[in-house]
Amino acid sequence: MFESYLQTGVIVLSEETLKRVFGAVWSRFLEFEITRSRMITELTGSSSSALILQVVAYHNLTLVQSTLDSKTYSEIRGAWELGDQTSNSELPKKLSFAAIADITGIDKETVRRSVKKLEEQEWLSINQEAGLVTIRHRRIKTSF
Questions:
Q1: Which residues pair with 127 in a beta bridge?
Q2: What stretches of 71-136 show up as alpha helix (H) in DSSP?
Q3: What is the pTM of this model?
Q4: 46-144 in CATH: which number?
Q5: Fewer CB under 10 Å: which end of the chain, C or N?
């Protein structure tokens, strides 16, 4: 369906284009989201842990992205996989249990227990001193 909207290898995503292909795009997007959510839930053991892992990944990726001059996918992904969060010390790097609870709507104590379990499963690392929860990239790479 998108083939007719290609211009020199780039998909033109104008509002009008999205309106024309909305049904096809939306149903495929939802199918992708459901499948991805199911896979993450299976890997982490619960839907709460899956959501928490996604919040931590988003937070870490946002920190990395904000430190880079380039915004290309490969450079952002490469820096993220390396765990490169050292270049901008002014960023609010703290991601606490309370912040995760606020973002997800999950009770703070449930977040704490889930994060501890994710750490035991080697999905996350917790730095008590900095109040930072980070992704363990080696586990992510070997699981997908």
A1: 132
A2: 73-82, 97-104, 108-120
A3: 0.71
A4: 1.10.10.10
A5: C
